[in-house]
Structures are given as C-alpha cells and as structure tokens.
Design the sequence.
C-alpha cells in the first residue's frame, strides 16, 4: 500500500512547486523572524523531499525515474514531463542543499525587505529545479527563462555593489540573447521530429519531449546548425569563454546568495550534457565542433586562471576561477569518453560545494570588513582562525587537493582529456598548476603574515550559524573525496548510455531520409 | 452588373449580433438625451450590457456552428469572423470599463462618448465579416469615423486636437489609397469578392491595386512604413481611446488581411511573403529601437505596439494555416497584455496626473497591485514564460521556422532582447527607484476589474493555453483547403502511401 502510494506520488511536482508555493505563503507574514523561520522550514522540507528522491533513486540505471508525464499544449506537442536520471538527480539534491545554506546565511546578513528577498530566493529555487528535472524542452526553456526574473531582482535590490543595476541588466540581456537562439534550436528539433513523424505516421506529430526527439534521426548538417544554436544558449549561461563578461559583474555586484547560485550551480554545462550531446551526437563528435569547443575550453582554463592571479578582490577572483573551472568541465564533456563525462559531472557537483563555500567565506569576510578587497584584509589567521581554516580547506578543495571531491573529478577529466588527445590534457594540467598559484597567493596575502592595517580590532570569528554552513559544505566535500562511489554509481548508468549513444549516432541515420512514394 | 437582393428571415439571423448592437446604439442615444441627469456610469453599464448580450449571441453562434454568407458573398459569417467579432466586442467591453474613471475629463458630450465607442465597435464587427472590396471600404470607413471624433475628444487639450487632425488627414489619405486600389483591381479583373479572385492573372494594374489596398490596411494596423500617425495620435488621444485604438482595429484589419492574402491572393504566396517579411522586419526593428528612447508611457506602448504588430505579421508572412492560427492566438495574448498595461496607465494618471515613465518611480511601494500587474503585462509583451505572450511568440516562431523564414526569425529574436531592455527600464523605475511621494495610490473598482480580467487572461492562457489553441485552430479551418493543406495541418488529411 505504502509502496504503491510512493510509486504514484508526484514527488517531482512537489519538489518543483513547493518553494514557489512557499514563497506565496511567506507573503502572508509580516513579522520578519516568522518569515525567516518559515523560509527555512520550506527549504528544509524541500531538502527532505530531495533526499527522499536520492535515497529511492535506483543507481546504475540509465532509465528516467520518478517520471511524470501530462500533455500541456498538445497542439504544439508540448508536455509537462518531469523526470530525473543519473545526470540530473545529484543536481536536484545540490540545489536544495545550497538553498538551505543560503537561507541560513541570509538570516542576519539581509536586513531590508527580508520577505521579498526570501520570496525571490524560493522562486529562484523552483526555476532552477525546473531546469534540472524538465524533460520536455519547452518546459525546460520556460524555467530557464523564468530564472532571469528572480535573479534580476535579487541582484538589483540586494546587491552590494554600486554598479548592481548595470550588472543585473547585463546579466538578463546577455542570457536572454543566448536563450533566444537556443529557442530556435529547440524549435528546429521539433520541426525535424515533425517531418519524420508525419512521414512515418507516428503520434504525436509534434513533440518537444527529449525522449521523442531522441528517437528520430537528424541529418548531419541540421545537427551542426542546431548544435551551435543550443551552444549559444548554454554558453552564455554557463558562461563559456568568450561569453563570460557578465559573470564577474553579476557575482561582484550581486548578493552572496545569488553568487552561490550562479557560481555553484553549473546550469549551462548541465545543458550540454543533458541536451546537446545526447540529441546531437554526430555533431558533437565531429572534428570541427570538438576542436573549436576544446579550444574555447582550454582558453577559458588559462584565461580564467591568469586573470584570477591578478585580482585584488576575492569575489572577482572566484568569478574568474569559476570561468577557469567551467573550461575544465567543458574539456571533460567534449573528450566524449566515459571518464571525461563522468569526471565533468562529478566536478560540476563538487564545484557546487566548493565554489559555494568560497562565496560564503567571501560573504563572512564582507560582513565583517564591508569589503573583500585585498587592501582591507591581511593576517586574518591570527584574529579569525576558523575563517582561515575553512577558507584554506574550501580553497584547496576548489583546486583539487587529493582527499577532496574535486580531486576525483579533475583527475577523471584529465584522464579523459589525455585519452582524447594528449595536447588537451597537457594544456589542461597547466590550469591546475595556475589554480594552485592564484589561490595560495591570495590566501597568503589575505590570511597570513602581519595583521592588515584595515582589519578592525573588534573583528570576531565565525559564529555558530556560520560554522554550520562551512562545516556542512566541508563534510560533503570530504565525503565525495574519500568515498565517491555512491555518487559515481548514481550517474554511471546514464553516462554509459550517453557514451553508447555517442558511438551509435542518431539511431536511424542510415535509413533513407525520404521514403519512396508509390503513386 | 445586376445586383438582386433577396433576404430571408434565416439570412437575417446571421446579422443578429449586428442588428442587436445597432438597436442598442439607438437606445444609448435616446437614453442619453432623454435623461440628461443620468449619471454617466449608468450609461456605461448600459452600453456594457448591450455588448455583453452581443457577445453572448456570438458565443451562441460559435457553439451552434451558425455560419453563412449574405448579400452575394459580400458579408461572410464564418468561425474566423466570429472569433474577430468576439475579440472586438470583448476589448470594447474592457475599454468602456476602463473609461468610467476617465470620463470626467471630458467637459461635454459624455454620453455621446459611449455611443461613439460602441459605434466604432459595430463598424469593426462588420469589418470582420467583409468579404469583398466594397464592403471592405465601407466598413473600414464606418469604423474609422467614430475614431476621428474620439481621438480629439479632449477638446481643450492641444495634443488631443493635434492627434485628431493628424489621424483625420492621414486617415482620409489612406481611404483615398484604398478607393484607388479597389478601382484598379476592379478595372483589371471585374471582380470584387475575394473568393472569386482566386484565378486572376497577375498584371501591373492588379499589383499596384493590391499594393494600395495593403497600404491602406497597413495604415490601420500601424505597420512600418505606414505607422507615422501612431505615436502622436496615441500620445494625444484620451487614454481609453488609445487603448481601444491599439487593439480592436488591429484585429478587424487583420481579419481583412487574412481574407485578402489567404483567399484572394493565395496563388501569389511566394510574392507577398517577401512583402510581408520586409514589412514585419521593419516594424519590429523600428518599433523596438525607437521605444528605447521614450520618456512617456503611452508613447512607449505605442512603439512597442508597432513592434508587436510586426510579430503578428510574421504569422501572416508564413502563409500557412499554422501561421494564421498563431496570429489569432498572438492577437488574443496581445489584447490582454496591452489592454492591461493601458488600464494601469489610466489608473496611474488618474492618481498622480502624469503619464511620464519617470513618475512611475517607486510604484512598487505606492501600489504593489498596480506595479505587479504592470510587471506581468510587460513581461508578457516581452514574451517571458510562462505568460501568454511567450506561448504566442513560440507559436508564431514555430510556424515561421517551419516555412524556413530564418532571416525573419533571427530579426524577431534579436528584437525580443531589445524589447526586454526597455520593458526592464520601466520595471526598474517601478521597483528600484525611490518615489517622490510615498502616499499609496487609490485604484477605482472598474479599473481593478479590467486589470484582474487582463491578469487572469495573461496568466491563464500562459499556463493552460490548450482551450485557446483549440479555438483558434478551429476558427481558421476555413482556410485549410486554400493555404497549403498538407504541410500545415496538425494531422495531414491525405495519407501518403509509401514503401520500399
């Protein structure tokens, strides 16, 4: 009875809409403490639902699980199709986990319009969840676009920088520009499906469902065109070098909570592994596409790392290190072998924890010194040993120290890259060295040595709420680093299926494109 | 040409909505001058009652499938005509509701205002059924007549007078073009009814004639390069009239354009597609780029309206059934979003006496309801999911990509980004800028009703568009045999046999 109930219970719908419904409920409260407590309760409940999904998720399987499928606009072939598989399930947990931490972090750091802030944050959570669990491409696009609205308000109303209005507008217009091209790509996929389906009398004649789209062949030229259209959408959002210019602005000017989401959840690269590679395998493995993307990825690794070296501000440094890390992820993805894909996926999850952790550290410093500039820091380790401790650990996790999760991921990526072509691997390794350099150098100047002049005497170390945030993240990083197999097992099935599909190409591409007509 | 007119009572039934509204129109006039002491609201509600009755009648026709033609095919009542008639009557009801607060600004002839609005609506209802060139001319002039007066209704206001003169001069110029075009087409073919023209041969006179007719209709819908009257007229007119002008005549003119291009000129599709692509690109780009520089809310909406019409023209340019379905759908989403935005302009200008965008600063604090609704309407106009505007744009783009109109689509998509920029500027003013005056705004009941209806429409069509897509698909069934039957129907009627 309970088993049956559990199998038909629409848990993904609950996960999807719980935060936004919670946001509406928050609107009813006036008391600020009440708002904070309820927001935390909603975020925790959401996390509990996600943990439930993670626990019941069948590992080593490529199947779409917890699937919910209802027609939405049949005339256009749009359906409400939610599901998780090995590629997306970990992101669902990560999103819920980070949101809880952001709510805790914002407890006393967000002082004005608390209610609106929490509402925007929860609305953002819904849209991010939607991006991860939508199987229908239009549904996915809906959430992808919708994300811009709460993000815009979060950067604009709660950002700390003077240029936050510019940053918010830039963020929205850049990502919108990318996504309109992506929309064309999505529609082209649908039209291609439509042509196939009408000739073969397959129902439905229009479909945006990933599973339907996967079942039809796509001519190679068409694949390349669609690939680049989707690429623009994902590359602007990720952001992949050279589409990255909005990221440092948004992360620097926006609030810490927003930076954690933008920096921690790699939505753009998720798009590549969710849609581009499986839908367009022949284009993805074609020589030109791979060389261009590898070149962009390697450029991003080096460019991000070199620029991170010269940054005076921690948040800008983190932004550029994110660009560098995303380059890594892209290299892993387009190595197009098992290790590369698995490593990229794991790295995306790891970076979620470590980058988010570093942004929280930046937030801790900011709330004490009202700045994350190097000039206002220095020798902090004596005064605030806990901050220094967590900063070191999270930073080392970010650069891939053995024992942390990123090591496993980066190792797999490098392995995959070497397997694809040793040059890619060789250049990527330089990125690892540079990342150690920029982090350790910044750490030395900010935390070690004599106490900086601008550091306040009254500066206090982490209080319990902040310790909770930092240690929760550190624990997760240690867990993935020391015992990654549960995580790898969850993704293995889907990654293997993806590798198979890459080898096979779109299934029926050998069949004649136009069936012969007999009149 | 001999013209015998025989009308039976069953023929008259087809005219029932128009007859109903005409008699109601007379009643409005009689009541207005018999009871000069009657409060104006009463007359407004009385007009609305008549329009609701007409709407009910149209819904009944649509549900019962009552269709047919009258007067030797001059008047066609098909499901597409019914759609546009409901569109027009629905927008008229909302406009009258939104006018109730505004009317105190008119020093004279308050009662006649409602009469003129309903009369224009009646003219547009006839436009939706116009099936030959003569009835196009007559109905178009009939509906525009009311607008000539309405635009200049603020007699003491110089801007309103200027708007009136501009609209009138350009309007009669367009009428002259239309008459000249019709005479050329008739001279070349000897035919007036659209459905008789399907077999005509191309000749220079015919081409020039149809271009002139298109120019006159382009003037009606305000597409670039026939748009020059729009900004000043929209700016100077009383705001409810602007709202009315920005929606209802567009619908009626698109009904005529659909009949002209899809029926009369169906065989020349490759040629007129190019024309429409050009006009659409010009409208979208010009409207959006000029909108960025606007300081006045009405002007901003005027230019954004030009761009929106460019979007609708994409659907027309496809020349397929799916494209025309998408047009109808898009017009409906545009109705709710645009009318809602204008209702808020009316509410704000009633409260603070200004229509400048700068004066929208801090609206989010002064009236969360108005600011939130404005946000929804602007986002729907920009095409942000899951609002109605997004589905509308998606529908149109799918239809266009299917026809391979890639240049048009690329321009359209870049325009979405441009439009987002100026909509976001308004959003920023409302939510981020500090208000000069913190006092909350008062919103009257009728305006609230309009805003609620438009909000409900925008959200409902966005979240659950299925009933509306079904409706527009069935409303356009009449063209299924004319415009590219196999490629555009959701389910192809002819099954192609194929095999090894």
Sequence:
């Amino acid at each position: 009875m309970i088993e049956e109930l559990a199998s038909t219970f629409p848990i993904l719908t609950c996960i999807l809409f719980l935060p936004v419904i919670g946001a509406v409920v928050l609107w009813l409260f006036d008391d600020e403490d009440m708002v904070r407590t309820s927001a935390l309760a909603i975020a925790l409940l959401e996390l509990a639902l996600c943990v439930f999904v993670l626990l019941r998720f069948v590992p080593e399987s490529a199947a779409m699980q917890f699937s919910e499928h209802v027609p939405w606009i049949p005339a256009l072939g749009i359906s409400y199709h939610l599901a998780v598989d090995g590629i997306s399930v970990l992101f669902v947990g990560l999103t819920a986990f980070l949101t809880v931490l952001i709510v805790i972090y914002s407890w006393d750091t967000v002082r004005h319009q608390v209610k609106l802030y929490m509402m925007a944050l929860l609305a953002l959570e819904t849209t991010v969840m939607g991006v991860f669990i939508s199987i229908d491409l239009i549904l996915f696009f809906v959430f992808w676009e919708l994300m811009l609205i709460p993000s815009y308000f979060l950067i604009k109303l709660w950002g700390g920088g003077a240029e936050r209005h510019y940053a918010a507008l830039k963020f929205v217009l850049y990502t919108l520009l990318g996504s309109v091209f992506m929309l064309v790509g999505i529609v082209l996929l649908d039209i291609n499906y439509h042509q196939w389906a009408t000739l073969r009398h397959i129902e439905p004649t229009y479909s945006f469902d990933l599973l339907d789209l996967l079942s039809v062949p796509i001519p190679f030229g068409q694949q390349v065109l669609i690939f680049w259209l989707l690429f623009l959408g994902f590359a602007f959002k990720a952001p992949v070098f050279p589409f990255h210019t909005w990221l440092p602005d948004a992360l620097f000017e926006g609030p810490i909570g927003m930076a954690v989401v933008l920096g921690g959840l790699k939505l753009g690269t998720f798009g590549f592994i969710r849609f581009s590679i499986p839908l367009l395998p022949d284009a993805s493995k074609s020589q030109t596409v791979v060389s261009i993307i590898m070149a962009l990825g390697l450029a991003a690794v080096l460019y991000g790392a070199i620029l991170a070296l010269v940054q005076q501000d921690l948040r800008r440094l983190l932004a550029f290190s994110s660009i560098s890390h995303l380059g890594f992820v892209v290299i892993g993805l387009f190595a197009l072998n098992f290790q590369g894909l698995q490593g990229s996926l794991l790295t995306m999850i790891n970076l979620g924890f470590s980058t988010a952790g570093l942004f929280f550290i930046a937030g801790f410093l900011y709330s004490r010194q009202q700045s994350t500039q190097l000039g206002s820091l220095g020798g902090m380790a004596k005064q605030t040993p806990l901050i220094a401790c967590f900063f070191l650990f999270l930073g080392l996790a970010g650069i891939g120290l053995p024992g942390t999760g990123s090591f496993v991921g980066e190792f797999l990526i490098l392995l995959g890259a070497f397997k694809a072509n040793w040059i890619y691997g060789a250049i990527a390794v330089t990125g690892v060295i540079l990342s150690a350099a920029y982090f350790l150098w910044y750490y030395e100047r900010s935390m070690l040595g004599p106490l900086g002049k601008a550091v306040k005497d009254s500066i206090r170390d982490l209080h319990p709420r902040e310790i909770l945030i930092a240690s929760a993240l550190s624990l997760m990083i240690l867990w993935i680093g020391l015992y990654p197999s549960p995580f790898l097992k969850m993704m293995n099935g889907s990654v293997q299926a993806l590798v198979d599909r890459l080898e096979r190409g779109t299934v029926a591409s050998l069949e004649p494109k136009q069936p012969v007509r007999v009149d | 040409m001999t013209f015998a007119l025989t009308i039976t009572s069953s023929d008259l039934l087809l005219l029932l909505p128009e007859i109903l509204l005409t008699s109601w129109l007379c009643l409005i006039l009689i009541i207005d001058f018999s009871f000069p002491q009657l409060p104006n609201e009463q007359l407004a509600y009385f007009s609305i009652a008549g329009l609701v009755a007409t709407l009910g009648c149209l819904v009944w026709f649509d549900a019962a499938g009552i269709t047919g033609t009258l007067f030797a095919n001059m008047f066609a009542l098909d499901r597409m005509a019914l759609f546009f008639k409901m569109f027009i009557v629905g927008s008229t009801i909302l406009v009258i509701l939104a006018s109730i607060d505004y009317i105190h600004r008119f020093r004279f002839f308050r009662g006649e205002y409602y009469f003129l609005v309903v009369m224009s609506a009646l003219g547009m209802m006839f436009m939706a059924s116009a099936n030959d060139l003569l009835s196009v001319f007559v109905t178009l002039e009939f509906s525009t007549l009311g607008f000539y007066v309405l635009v200049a209704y603020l007699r003491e206001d110089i801007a309103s007078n200027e708007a009136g003169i501009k609209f009138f001069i350009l309007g009669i110029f367009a009428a002259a073009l239309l008459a000249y075009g019709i005479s050329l087409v008739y001279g070349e073919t000897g035919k007036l009814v659209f459905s008789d023209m399907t077999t005509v041969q191309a000749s220079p006179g015919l081409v020039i004639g149809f271009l002139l007719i298109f120019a006159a209709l382009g003037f009606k819908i305000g597409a670039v390069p026939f748009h020059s009257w729009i900004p000043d007229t929209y700016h100077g007119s009383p705001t409810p009239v602007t709202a009315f002008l920005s929606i209802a005549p567009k619908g009626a003119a698109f009904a005529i354009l659909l009949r002209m291009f899809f029926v009369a000129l169906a065989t020349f599709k490759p040629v007129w597609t190019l024309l429409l692509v050009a006009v659409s690109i010009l409208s979208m780009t010009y409207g959006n780029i000029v909108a960025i520089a606007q300081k006045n809310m009405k002007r901003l909406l005027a230019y954004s309206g030009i761009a929106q019409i460019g979007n609708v023209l994409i659907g027309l340019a496809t020349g397929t059934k799916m494209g025309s379905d998408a047009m109808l759908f898009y017009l409906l989403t545009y109705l709710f979003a645009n009318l809602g935005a204008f209702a808020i302009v009316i509410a704000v200008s009633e409260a603070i006496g200004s229509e400048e965008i700068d004066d929208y600063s801090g609206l989010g604090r002064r009236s969360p309801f108005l600011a939130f609704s404005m946000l929804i309407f602007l986002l729907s106009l920009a095409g942000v999911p899951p609002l109605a505007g997004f589905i509308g744009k998606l529908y149109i783009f799918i239809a266009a990509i299917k026809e391979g109109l890639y240049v048009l689509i690329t321009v359209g998509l870049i325009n979405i980004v441009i439009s987002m920029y100026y909509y976001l500027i308004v959003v920023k003013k409302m939510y981020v800028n500090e208000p000069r005056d913190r006092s909350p705004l008062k919103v009257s009941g009728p305006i609230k009703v309009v805003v609620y209806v438009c909000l409900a429409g925008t959200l409902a069509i966005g979240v659950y568009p299925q009933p509306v897509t079904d409706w527009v698909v069935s409303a356009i069934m009449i063209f299924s045999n004319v415009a590219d039957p196999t490629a555009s129907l959701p389910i192809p009627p002819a099954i192609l046999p194929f095999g090894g």
Q: What stands out?
A: The radius of gyration of chain B is 22 Å.
